[in-house]
Specification:
Elements lengths: L2 E5 L3 H13 L3 E5 L2 H11 L3 E5 L7 H12 L4 E5 L4 H9 L4 E4 L4 H13 L22 H14 L5 E4 L6 H10 L8 E5 L8 H6 L16 H4 L4 E5 L6 H13 L1 E2 L8 E2 L3 E6 L3 H6 L5 H7 L2 E4 L10 H16 L8 H9 L5 H16 L15 H25 L8 H20 L4 H8 L3 H10 L6
Parallel strand pairs: 1-2, 1-3, 3-4, 4-5, 6-11, 6-12, 7-8, 8-11
Antiparallel strand pairs: 9-10
């Protein structure tokens, strides 16, 4: 049986956690302030502490150091209703064993208490330092979990994989991990693998020596070498060619880079963060991604939820972008009408945070110096357009896989172009035709073909007009 100290100025929280501790077979003592909690800690020597951040007088984050001075490495669970990335990092760096945000389910608190009591004592971490950098905004429980996972992993050297749709802020999360890590003074090198030419990708990543290939008039350092001492962020990592994946794995395992055409490896000590909006596990199943590299990349996984699943973050994000734009243009911060805010919260934001930022910038241009009204907002991005943008890279990958398979198939048709059209054109024509309820003229206009041409194609593929 363990004894818990619960420090919170809300009586209902203290009562609920005390009852939970009793149900778990433990005892609990409560305090309404940090100062009172420190006095109890000196007398009772609790086995674990549940500590609120916002307290009258001394804050919970300030009190953590004093609790450690009194009790040593006793597990401390931080709870707060005002979670952000900075407070999460400060809590973890201050030695917190866990970070829970209000309102919370008692099952969440129970698991946190169980984990805390199972922890072996370990020295508290260094006191927090002020870190400048990009701000990740979000008050939703989903984003609180993201903050917590960033805070937990930042101080480690583990590879981190970020998942999320386009526009959710994966690079921003990667930069936050870097800025809160021990490598913060080193470089942050971001590489979008989808933008690299397949023929030059190896040279861009690993560098090359003079004469390695035609046009290599001198040596060149690659992105991996540039990241030495810092963090390498590989965005759209699912697009890395198979031929390069084994070389990247070797670099991660041995900490050295072999430039194209070279014989002498170069030291490359960096922390790797990867990201993709694709299903990387499916890429492994399809044979397009090495399983050994996959398991190396996903040592620690963080999923960033789409904005439509956390509508409570829309308003603080909009206000944040307004402040950024005001600072950039050296103008007063614009205000938003109630109708504009309601419209922002009503929209689905298929383009996620990136689309919201663009909408706010669009609105400030139209509103000029007046308050932003609903009519200043741009039309929402259709789900179909956003879906197409999100899936474009995945579709390109599937086409490449089909093409490679056809090229390796000795029995395949010699006309790849015709074979591909026969594969995709029937589905395209039928989908558009059915969407317009069999109205041939309308479907033809949408497809950009003549009505007679569409009818011939429908007959050719056996698609009924009725």
């Amino acid at each position: 049986m363990a004894q818990l100290l619960i420090v919170d100025d809300e009586q209902s929280i203290c009562w609920g956690l005390s009852k939970l501790a009793e149900e778990m077979g433990h005892t609990a003592v409560t305090a309404a302030s940090a100062e009172q909690g420190l006095e109890i800690a000196r007398e009772r020597r609790p086995d674990a502490i549940v500590l609120d951040v916002r307290l009258p007088g001394m804050s919970g984050l300030e009190a953590m150091q004093h609790f450690h001075e009194i009790l040593g490495p006793t597990p401390i669970i931080i709870i707060t209703a005002y979670g952000d990335l900075t407070s999460a990092v400060e809590a973890v760096r201050g030695g917190a064993s866990d970070y829970v945000t209000k309102p919370f389910d008692l099952r969440v608190a129970q698991r946190a208490i169980q984990r805390a009591l199972q922890l072996s004592p370990s020295p508290s971490q260094a006191a927090p330092t002020q870190v400048d950098g990009d701000v990740i905004v979000g008050k939703s429980s989903a984003m609180q979990e993201v903050f917590k996972r960033i805070a937990l992993v930042a101080a480690s050297e583990a590879c981190v994989h970020l998942r999320g749709e386009s526009g959710t802020g994966k690079e921003l999360a990667a930069r936050a991990i870097h800025r809160h890590s021990h490598r913060a003074e080193g470089p942050f090198v971001a590489v979008n693998l989808a933008s690299l030419s397949p023929t030059l990708a190896e040279s861009e990543l690993f560098g090359h020596v003079r004469g390695a290939f035609t046009g290599a008039d001198g040596p060149k350092r690659g992105f991996l070498e540039h990241a030495h001492g810092g963090t390498l962020f590989l965005d759209e990592v699912a697009d890395i060619p198979l031929s390069i994946q084994v070389k990247l794995l070797r670099t991660l395992e041995h900490g050295e880079v072999l430039p194209v055409g070279g014989n002498c490896p170069v030291q490359a000590d960096f922390r790797l963060i990867s990201a993709t909006h694709q299903n990387l596990a499916q890429r492994v199943a399809d044979g397009a991604f090495r399983h050994d590299l996959y398991f190396r990349l996903i040592t620690f996984d963080i999923e960033i939820p789409p904005l439509r699943q956390r509508p409570e973050d829309i308003r603080p994000l909009a206000e944040h972008f307004l402040r950024l734009l005001a600072a950039k243009t050296d103008r007063p911060v614009s205000s938003m009408t109630r109708e504009a805010l309601e419209e922002l919260e009503r929209l689905p934001w298929y383009g996620n945070v990136r689309e919201l930022r663009n909408a706010i910038e669009h609105a400030t241009v139209l509103a000029r110096h007046s308050a932003i009204a609903a009519e200043h907002l741009p039309p929402p991005t259709p789900a179909s357009v956003s879906s197409l943008a999100v899936q474009e890279d995945a579709l390109t990958g599937l086409i490449r896989q089909w093409t490679e398979a056809e090229l390796q198939n000795p029995r395949a048709s010699g006309n790849l172009h015709e074979s591909f059209l026969n594969l995709v054109e029937p589905a395209l024509l039928e989908t558009v035709f059915r969407h317009y309820h069999g109205q041939c003229a309308t479907a033809a206009r949408r497809l950009g073909v003549h009505r007679t041409t569409l009818r011939k194609k429908l007959d050719q593929f056996g698609i009924s007009e009725h």
